[in-house]
Design goal:
The complex is a heterodimer of chains A (about 425) and B (about 150). Helices cover about 40% and strands about 10% of the residues of chain A. Chain A is α/β, with parallel strands linked by helices and about 425 residues long. Chain A folds into 3 domains: about 210 residues, NADH-ubiquinone oxidoreductase 51kDa subunit (Rossmann fold); about 80 residues, Ubiquitin-like (UB roll), CATH 3.10.20.600; about 90 residues, de novo design (two linked rop proteins). In chain A, the strands form 2 sheets. A 4-stranded parallel β-sheet of chain A has the order 3-2-1-4, sandwiched between helices. In chain A, strand 5 and strand 6 form a beta hairpin. In chain A, helix 2 crosses helix 9, helix 12 packs antiparallel against helix 13 and helix 12 runs antiparallel to helix 15. Chain B is α+β, with helices and mostly antiparallel strands and about 150 residues long. Chain B has 2 domains: about 50 residues, no CATH class; about 80 residues, Glutaredoxin. Chain B is about 45% helix and about 10% strand. Chain B has a 4-stranded mixed β-sheet with strand order 2-1-3-4, covered by helices on one side. Classes of the chains: A alpha/beta (about 425), B alpha+beta (about 150). The interface between A and B is large, with 55 and 40 residues.
């Protein structure tokens, strides 16, 4: 497949606006603003079947359509660059190495929904991205792609960068809005959804970086091109992040629906050191673990739930036969316990309890019934937390017990690793 | 609007809290009560609100830290590629401090952090605002030596 999202991957300094334009940049913005009315763009995105790339997979065209059409209502667009899901590293790449591609998506989406202010919320740890975006935005103003009366169309848009300060939960869209407002990043109750009541109480379109990066390519190549790639319910190109025990970890742009086998063995070079594959996390830390028997499952929104997992962000973490599953899951449990915002009790207490039990098993402390207790904690938390973080925390624990119960039992019985 | 023109106590002023806290942290070295008080006054917020926001986020130092804050990624992908604990052990030995501590000369603070989105180039760590990836023990040695000289 010809690359779209990663087409500038070998272009040095694509973050420089001149370099970007020399490689065909800003043609999409010209085409969208000069040849289309906002409604036409919304229809176009609906036709593509594009679903959000930040984990939830909500249809982007529907989201655009939910935004009120009244021109007197102040609307905002927020770019979610709070990428922090373990295993995921595509958005950081996009905002650091090809930021103008993302900004083109921002301008086109803002024009389509009638937003005149956009905020790029960048994770606090991505300091390089913050520095680059300050220049990227200034350069776009200089060339007339931002500011008043863009390309003489009468459409105006101001964009600014907002640096986060370290909190995974701010990747949840309403927590990000709270953080943009200068508050603790605790999620809001939904509904109302941001398209109705978002930033400063106004309708707000929130998109993941990769979702917006798809937009200029859709404008240039047409919705049919996008919809021709992928599976029935999952369209377009996707950046798969592959990490862990593979020969060539990295970002790979492939059609939606590519199998795990092709991603791991053809593109990422297979398991490192020729060792045996043991477990796969298909879509980032919050998606349930799979085993080698699932290698032929296509990576798509509709196929992974059939084998008990989720597509998530398409971040594939590979674990070989030398991996202690208990220890690996403990790492993930610690992550969720650390990142639980503390607003609701089932998540705050549940995630910490899971860490304590897993630490006990890992350290070989004898505690009969630990596994049942762990599953009991999972059941108690499931569906009872304020936001999806609680359910996400359950996934690696419950799925690993399902697939590797023997290994947990061995750990408890023998007080040591099976591997 | 220039920052000083934003009316105090408004949502627009409050939205500057994260940025103002970064500035205060840089000026005061860490977010002391004095630093938080100053942010509160400048933005027209209560000290309680500013403390509540600051204490939520992991990149704000609520107590004095070393000149260089080393943050080692504890993410699963770093762990799988011999980072995380192994890297922390290596740094503990070299610096002679535990996680959360600062060297007696005030140069280095050692911390662990959650996934840095460098899973494709793991193991990774940050020092102040700089990201270091594809780390090995030799690379860590070289980085520490360079910082000690600089």
């Amino acid at each position: 497949m010809e690359k779209a999202l990663l087409k500038n991957v070998y272009v040095p300094h694509a973050d420089n606006i001149d370099v970007y334009i020399a490689h065909g940049g800003y043609r999409a913005v010209r085409k969208a603003l000069l040849e289309f009315k906002p409604e036409g763009l919304i229809e176009m995105v609906k036709k593509t079947g594009l679903r959000g790339r930040g984990g939830a997979g909500f249809p982007a065209g529907l989201k655009w359509g939910f935004m009120p059409k009244d021109p007197d209502v102040t609307k905002y667009l927020c770019v979610n660059t709070d990428e922090g899901e373990p295993g995921t590293f595509k958005d950081r790449y996009l905002v650091e190495e090809d930021p103008h591609q993302v900004l083109e998506g921002v301008i086109i989406a803002a024009y389509a929904v009638g937003a005149h202010r956009a905020y790029v919320y960048i994770r606090g740890e991505f300091f390089l991205a913050v520095k680059r975006w300050i220049k990227v935005i200034a350069d776009a103003y200089d060339r007339g792609f931002l500011g008043k009366n863009i390309l003489g169309t009468g459409f105006s848009l101001d964009v600014s960068v907002h640096r986060g300060a370290g909190a995974y939960i701010c990747g949840e869209e309403t927590a990000m809005l709270e953080s943009l407002e200068g508050k603790r990043g605790e999620p809001r109750l939904k509904p109302p959804y941001p398209a109705q009541v978002g930033l400063y109480g106004q309708p707000t379109l929130v998109h993941n970086v990769e979702t917006l990066a798809c937009v200029p390519h859709i404008v240039l190549r047409g919705p049919e091109w996008f919809a021709s790639i992928g599976t029935e319910e999952s369209k377009g190109p996707k950046i798969f992040c592959v990490s862990g025990h593979v020969r060539r970890p990295g970002n790979y742009e492939l059609p939606m629906g590519t199998t795990l086998r092709e991603i791991i063995y053809e593109h990422a070079g297979g398991v490192k050191g020729g060792r045996k594959l043991k477990a796969i996390i298909p879509g980032g830390a919050s998606t349930p673990m799979l085993t080698p028997e699932h290698l032929d499952v296509p990576m798509a929104f509709e196929t992974l739930p059939k084998v008990g997992s989720m597509f998530g962000t398409g971040a594939v973490i590979v674990m070989d036969e030398t991996t202690c599953i208990v220890k690996a899951v403990l790492h993930l449990a610690r992550f969720f316990a650390h990142e639980s915002c503390g607003k609701c009790v089932p998540c705050r207490v549940g995630t910490q309890t899971m860490v304590k039990i897993l630490e006990g098993i890992e350290a070989g402390e004898e505690r009969d019934g630990d596994l049942d207790l762990l599953l009991d904690v999972c059941n108690t938390m499931f569906g009872k937390t304020f936001c999806p973080l609680g359910d996400a925390a359950i996934n690696p624990v419950a799925s690993s017990i399902e697939h590797f119960r023997d290994e947990y039992e061995y750990h408890i019985r023998e007080k040591q690793c099976m591997v | 609007m220039a920052p000083q023109e934003i009316p105090k106590g408004t949502p627009a002023a409050r939205s500057m809290a994260l940025t103002a806290l970064y500035i205060a942290q840089e000026q005061y070295g860490y977010l002391s009560e004095e630093a938080l008080q100053r942010v509160a006054e400048r933005l027209g917020l209560s000290l309680k609100d500013v403390y509540s926001t600051a204490s939520f986020y992991s990149l704000y130092q609520m107590k004095p830290a070393g000149q260089y804050v080393i943050q080692v990624c504890e993410g699963l992908s770093c762990f799988l590629r011999d980072g995380a604990e192994r890297l922390v052990d290596c740094l503990r030995r070299k610096l002679g401090i535990e996680v959360g501590e600062t060297t007696p000369d005030g140069r280095f603070t050692l911390e662990t952090v959650q996934c840095l989105a460098s899973c494709g180039t793991s193991p990774a760590m940050r020092i102040n605002d700089e990201l270091y990836d594809n780390l090995t023990e030799e690379k860590v040695d070289a980085i520490l030596e360079q910082l000690a000289r600089g």
